[in-house]
Sequence to fold (144 residues):
Amino acid sequence: MVQLHHLNVVSKPGLSKPRLSSPWLGGLALGAVLLVGCGPQPTSTVESVGSYEAQLAEHLTATGGAMYGAYWCPHCADQKAMFKEAAELLPYVECAADGENAQPELCQQKGIQGYPTWEIEGQLYPGVKSLADLAELSGFSAPQ
Fold:
């Protein structure tokens, strides 16, 4: 069913042109402004999925690699920063018992003694590693 809205043409003294008046007209204009001006803004969550950092992070995940760390560890933050937006793609294991999604038992089982520690192909590599080192250790080569 189509519902018609009645528009009133209102002329006020001193105005040369009549204007439209309707209760829904103001709401329509406000809605348009809110829809256009307040809509969701594009986010930068791994906007460059094809970036070298994203490809390396995905490769590390796909090959069973893991970065063991703690939320309070500045070296872990430095390591993640090397991956830029792709840091969220890293196969990260939180070892601090009070951290988000903590897995301290797994860290103990693996014998993690310092952060960050990378596990790549069953071997543990403690300390911050360059992207080139991680690529070499994991056998990653970026597609051309």
Notes: Residues 26 and 98 are 51 Å apart (CA to CA).
